[in-house]
DNA sequence: CTAGGGTTAG
C-alpha cells in the first residue's frame, strides 16, 4: 500500500455511517466531499457503498447524481428503490417516480413493500392517474399490504383527490384502526369535494369517538364551518384550539381568523387579529380579503397600511385582494399605486395579478388601460379573457365583448362558465336576434344549455331581442323540477316587458304552484308586468299577497309599480299619498311614474310636484322635462310648455358624452 | 424511509 495516501483514505465502514447521517438536502456538500473521498480511496467498486451513496444523494434531492449511481447498481435494495421514488415525488416529479416503479415491477428486481405503496399512490394522485391508482390498489389487496395503515391512508387521500368520495369512505370503513390522519383526510376530502356538511358530520363523529384531534384536524374542519357559515361549530373549534394548546400554531390561528371572516363576523375577526402577537402575511391577508368580500373595501386598504407599518410586506395574494378593493371603491388612484408596486415587486406578470389588474381598471371604467394590461398577459389562460370580457360588459361595450369572445375561440382558449356569465349579458345589451341565435347554437353545441344560469340568461337575451317565442322555448327545455326562482323570474319579466300581463301573472301562479317561493325580484317582475299591462286589481292583490303572505319587505321599485298602477287607473291622489306615506325614501323613478300618470290624466297640480322632484333627483334626464312640457301642452298652457322645452336644451348641452369604444386590435 | 393541513383572480 502507498503510505503517502494514508491521510486521504477512508474505511468503507466509516463511509457507511457518515452517509447514513447525511440524509437531508442540507448535507449535499458534505455528501459530495465524501463522494470524492470514496473515489480517491478506490472504494467506488464496493456495490454496497455505491448503493448507500445513491440513496444519500436521493435524500439530498440531487436527482442527476442519485439516478446516475442508482442506474449502475448491480443489485438494488428495496430501500434504494423506495428512496429514489420518494425523491422524485418530493421534487414534484411524480411521473419519474412512477417510471421507477414500473421499472421495478418489469425488471423483476424488486418487490414493492408497505413503504413503496404510499409513495406510488401519492404519485398517482398528484398526476390524477385514477386508473393506475385503482390498479395499484388491486396490487395492495393481492399482496396483503392493503391492511397497512399508511397504505390505507394514502389510498383514502388519493380517492378524495380524484373526487371518488364513496371509494374513499369505503377504504375508511374497512380500516380496523383509523388514525387521526385517516379522520383528517376524510374531513378535508369531503370539504374539498364540496360536501361541507358531511365534513362537519365526520368531525363530530370523530369527537364523539374520542379521537384526539391535532392541528390538521382543526385546519381541515374550519373551512367547512366557513362555507356553511356555521359560526357555532367554529367557536367550538376555537375553544378546542385554546384548550389543547393548538393556538401556538400560526396556521391554526389563520384558519380560525378565516372562519370568522367567511362567517361574516368581521368584528370578531378584527378582535382576534388585534389579540395576536405573532402575525404573518397570511394573517393580514386573510383579514384584508375579509374586508373586501364583506363589502368594506375602505378598511381593506387601511389595514394594508397598518400591516406595512408593522413591517410585513404584502404578497401576491394580498395584492390581488387589494386590487379588488380598488375596483370596488372605483379608485383609479389607489389602483395605479398598487400596479406600480406590483411592478416593483416583480409580481405584475403573475396571472392572478394580471387578471386582478384587468378587472380593477375595468371596474374603474378605464377600459383602455384594462385592455392594455390584458394585451400583455399570456393569452393561454382563460382567466384574463374572462376579466377583460366582464370589464367590457361592465362598461357597456357589448360589441367589443362579443368581438373579443370570437377572438378567444379563434385562439383556442377554452371558455368556462364564468366566461359565459361575463359574456351573455353583452348579448342582452346588443338585443340583436341574429347574434342571439348564433350564441344559442354555440351553447347547444358545447352542452352549456343544461346549466340553469345560462338558460336563464338566454331567456333574458331573447326577451331583450323581442322574441318571446324563443325565450319560452329555452324556458321549456329546463325540466319543471329543475326550474329555479331565477329562470321563473326571467320568463315572467320577459312577458311583462312586452305587455303580456296576463301571461306573466299566470306564469307567476304556475311558479307558486310548483312550490317555488316568490322573492322580491319575482314580485318586481310580476308587479311591473301588471302595471305595464294595466292590470290594476291584479297588481294590487299581488302586492297584498307579497306583504301579507310572503312577508317581503317592499323596495322602492315595488312601490313604483303600484304608483304606476294607481296612476294609470286615474287614482292619482292615492298614488301621491302612497309616495308620501311609504316607509322608505323616494327616488326619481317613483316620481317619474307619477309624472307619467299625471300626463295621461292631465293633472297639472300633482304633475308639477312630481316633475320638481324628478328635476331635483335626476337633473340630467331630459325625458322628465319633455313629460312636463307634454302635460302643459295637453291642457293648453303653451307658453309654459315652451319654457320647459327651452330648459331641455340647456340640460342637453350639459349632458356627458356617451361611452367611447375601445379599439380591439389584432393580437 | 411511507399517509393528512391555511390565504388567491374570473
TrEMBL record:
Keywords: Repeat
Molecular function (Gene Ontology), one example: RNA binding
The keyword Repeat is annotated on this UniProt entry: yes
InterPro entries: E_motif, PPR_At4g14850-like_plant, PPR_rpt, TPR-like_helical_dom_sf
Family the UniProt entry places it in: Belongs to the PPR family. PCMP-E subfamily.
Stored NCBIfam families: PPR
Protein name per its UniProtKB record: Pentatricopeptide repeat-containing protein
Species name: Vicia faba
Amino acid at each position: 500500500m502507498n503510505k503517502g495516501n494514508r491521510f486521504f483514505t477512508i474505511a468503507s465502514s466509516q463511509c457507511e455511517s457518515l452517509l447514513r447521517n447525511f440524509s437531508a438536502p442540507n448535507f449535499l456538500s458534505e455528501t459530495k466531499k465524501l463522494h470524492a473521498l470514496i473515489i480517491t480511496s478506490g472504494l467506488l467498486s464496493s456495490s454496497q457503498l455505491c448503493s448507500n451513496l445513491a440513496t444519500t444523494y436521493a435524500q439530498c434531492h440531487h436527482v442527476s447524481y442519485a439516478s446516475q449511481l442508482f442506474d449502475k447498481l448491480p443489485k438494488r435494495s428495496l430501500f434504494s428503490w423506495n428512496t429514489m421514488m420518494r425523491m422524485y415525488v418530493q421534487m414534484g416529479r411524480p411521473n419519474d417516480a412512477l417510471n421507477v416503479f414500473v421499472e421495478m415491477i418489469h425488471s423483476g428486481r424488486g418487490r414493492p413493500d408497505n413503504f413503496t405503496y404510499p409513495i406510488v399512490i401519492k404519485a398517482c394522485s398528484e398526476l390524477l392517474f385514477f386508473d393506475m391508482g385503482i390498479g395499484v390498489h388491486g396490487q395492495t389487496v393481492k399482496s396483503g399490504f392493503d391492511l397497512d395503515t399508511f397504505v390505507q391512508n394514502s389510498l383514502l387521500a388519493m380517492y378524495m383527490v380524484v373526487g371518488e368520495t364513496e371509494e374513499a369512505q369505503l377504504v375508511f370503513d374497512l380500516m380496523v384502526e383509523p388514525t387521526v390522519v385517516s379522520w383528517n383526510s376524510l374531513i378535508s376530502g369531503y370539504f374539498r369535494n364540496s360536501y361541507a356538511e358531511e365534513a362537519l358530520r365526520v368531525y363530530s363523529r370523530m369527537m364523539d369517538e374520542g379521537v384526539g384531534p391535532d392541528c390538521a384536524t382543526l385546519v381541515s374542519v374550519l373551512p367547512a364551518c366557513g362555507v356553511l357559515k356555521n359560526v357555532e361549530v367554529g367557536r367550538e373549534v376555537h375553544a378546542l384550539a385554546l384548550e389543547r394548546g393548538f393556538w401556538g400554531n400560526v396556521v391554526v390561528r389563520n384558519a380560525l381568523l378565516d372562519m370568522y371572516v367567511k362567517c361574516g363576523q368581521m368584528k370578531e375577526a378584527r378582535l382576534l387579529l388585534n389579540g395576536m402577537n405573532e402575525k404573518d402575511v397570511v394573517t393580514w391577508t386573510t383579514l384584508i380579503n375579509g374586508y373586501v368580500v364583506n363589502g368594506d373595501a375602505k378598511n381593506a386598504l387601511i389595514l394594508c397600511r397598518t400591516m406595512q407599518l408593522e413591517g410585513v410586506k404584502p404578497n401576491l395574494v394580498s395584492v390581488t385582494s387589494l386590487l379588488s378593493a380598488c375596483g370596488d371603491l372605483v379608485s383609479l388612484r389607489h389602483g395605479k399605486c398598487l400596479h406600480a408596486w406590483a411592478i416593483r415587486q416583480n409580481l405584475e406578470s403573475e396571472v392572478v395579478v394580471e387578471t386582478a389588474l384587468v378587472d380593477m381598471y375595468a371596474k374603474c371604467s378605464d377600459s383602455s388601460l384594462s385592455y392594455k394590461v390584458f394585451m400583455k398577459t399570456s393569452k393561454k389562460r382563460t382567466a384574463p379573457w374572462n376579466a377583460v370580457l366582464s370589464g367590457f360588459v361592465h362598461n357597456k361595450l357589448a360589441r367589443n365583448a362579443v368581438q373579443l369572445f370570437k377572438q378567444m375561440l379563434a385562439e383556442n382558449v377554452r371558455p368556462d362558465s364564468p366566461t359565459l356569465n361575463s359574456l351573455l349579458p353583452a348579448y342582452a345589451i346588443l338585443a340583436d336576434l341574429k347574434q342571439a341565435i348564433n350564441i344559442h347554437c354555440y351553447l347547444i353545441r358545447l352542452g352549456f344549455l343544461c346549466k340553469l344560469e345560462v338558460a336563464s340568461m338566454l331567456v333574458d337575451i331573447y326577451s331583450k331581442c323581442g322574441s318571446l317565442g324563443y325565450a319560452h322555448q329555452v324556458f321549456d327545455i329546463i325540466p319543471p323540477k329543475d326550474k329555479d326562482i331565477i329562470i321563473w323570474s326571467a320568463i315572467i319579466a320577459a312577458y311583462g316587458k312586452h305587455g303580456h300581463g296576463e301571461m306573466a301573472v299566470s306564469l307567476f301562479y304556475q311558479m307558486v304552484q310548483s312550490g317555488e317561493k316568490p322573492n322580491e325580484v319575482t314580485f318586481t317582475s310580476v308587479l311591473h308586468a301588471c302595471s305595464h299591462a294595466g292590470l290594476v286589481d291584479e297588481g294590487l292583490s299581488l302586492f297584498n299577497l307579497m306583504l301579507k303572505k310572503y312577508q317581503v319587505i317592499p323596495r322602492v321599485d315595488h312601490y313604483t309599480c303600484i304608483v304606476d298602477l294607481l296612476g294609470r287607473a286615474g287614482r292619482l291622489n292615492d298614488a301621491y299619498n302612497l309616495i308620501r306615506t311609504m316607509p322608505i325614501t323616494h327616488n326619481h323613478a317613483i316620481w317619474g311614474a307619477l309624472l307619467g300618470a299625471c300626463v295621461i290624466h292631465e293633472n297639472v297640480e300633482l304633475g308639477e310636484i312630481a316633475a320638481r322632484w324628478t328635476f331635483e333627483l335626476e337633473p340630467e334626464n331630459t325625458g322628465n322635462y319633455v313629460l312636463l312640457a307634454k302635460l302643459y301642452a295637453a291642457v293648453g298652457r303653451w307658453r309654459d310648455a315652451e319654457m320647459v322645452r327651452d330648459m331641455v336644451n340647456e340640460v342637453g348641452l350639459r349632458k356627458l358624452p356617451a361611452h367611447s369604444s375601445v379599439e380591439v386590435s389584432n393580437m
